[in-house]
Amino acid sequence: MEIIIKPTVAEAQQETAKIMRRQISRKPDSVLGLATGSTPIGVYALLAAMHEQGALDFSQVSTFNLDEYVGLEAGHPCSYREFMREHLFGKVNLAPSRIHFPDGTAKDVPLHCAEYEAAIVRAGGIDLQLLGIGREGHIGFNEPSSSLASRTRIKTLTPQTVQDNARFFGSADKVPRHVITMGVGTIMDTRHCLMLATGGGKAEAVARMAEGAITADLPASILQMHPACTLVLDEVAAAELKRCEYYRWVYDNKPEWQRV
Ligand code: GLP
Fold this sequence. Notes:
The chain is an alpha/beta fold. It has eight helices and ten strands. The chain has one domain (2-255): Rossmann fold. The radius of gyration is 17 Å and the shape is globular. The structure holds 2-amino-2-deoxy-6-O-phosphono-alpha-D-glucopyranose (GLP).
């Protein structure tokens, strides 16, 4: 796992956006896995600005979002589809036919989940998966105890995640209890995982994920087994890592050809 520690949230967001831009520049028809939550909002703003300035073309890009709430109709202001429209899709030239989302209103959920997996395969697999991390170490909505081999399926949120996401809904009782999420195995199949974590609230989960035991109790810890995982942090999110100095040393001594 490559761990990049930046002094500020803004610099961590810039690094993340630059890695995404490099991916699209190298492969204009990239398949991107996208994440929601507060953390990537600044990254999407940077990507939208790059597009606005003519420096980034999404016309051949395809996207698959990680997750969606069960039961929210299309256009619901708290749906993740709406979140993506507001922060990215409405601002760049992505073809609507290339945008993919789990459907939280699907009648046959297992069938829909199998079709979502099949659509990822048909697209050629995900080249770059953007990730955040939950306080309890979830990726997508793979809560603690998720199978580390899981595929796209329905999950029940933990009370902590319901609390954490209540700010988007106005109150915790309005947060759906169920979601459809790519599985841990689905995420592990992506060619490059790019996780951004910022703020002190994530420091413990980040340290357990990168330096602790691999365990379903903290699903993000499986990323230690991913052959190409980049973790971008601000100082505060990195505060509980034991080997910070080594990670900085690695970054400072990176061969020129590996730099973004
Ligand atoms: C959300 C999403 C995750 C996200 C995480 C952290 O509920 N399902 O994809 O990474 O929880 O969210 P935030 O960035 O708001 O802290």
